[in-house]
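for ur thesis appendix - ATP-dependent DNA helicase. copy paste whatever u need, i formatted it the way the template wanted (i think)
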Amino acid sequence: MEAPRSTCPRTGILYLLIEFQKRGLPHMHLLLILAEDDKIRDPENIDIIASAELPDKTVDPKLHEIVKFIMIHGPCGVLRPNAPCLVDGVCTKGYPKQFRDTTAENIDGYPMYVLVTTQTIL
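the 3d part is after this line
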C-alpha cells in the first residue's frame, strides 16, 4: 500500500543561510527548489499562488503603495535610456510584458502571468 501524499510539496534543493546583522539579530536567506514532480505548472494553480496585478487602491491603499514602490520594474527603455537593465536598448528582464487574459507557461518554465489592460499603467 502506498503512503498518502502530503499536501506540502517536496523540496528538491534547499539552500539556507543565516546571517547576524549589526545588532545581533538573525537574518535568513532561503532558496527552495521543488522536486520536479511537485513543481506547479498548471495556470489555475499558478494564479492561486502568484499575481501580477496591483492591489486595489480603494480596498488597500497602503498595500497598493508598497507594491508600487517595491515591486514595479522600471521605467526603462525610451523613458530611461540609461537604465541598468538595458543592454543595446533592450531590457534584460523582458519588460515591458505583453498584456494577457490568461496565465501560461513559457518555454523556459517561467509563468507568463495574467496582465489586464484595465489597470492604470504606472
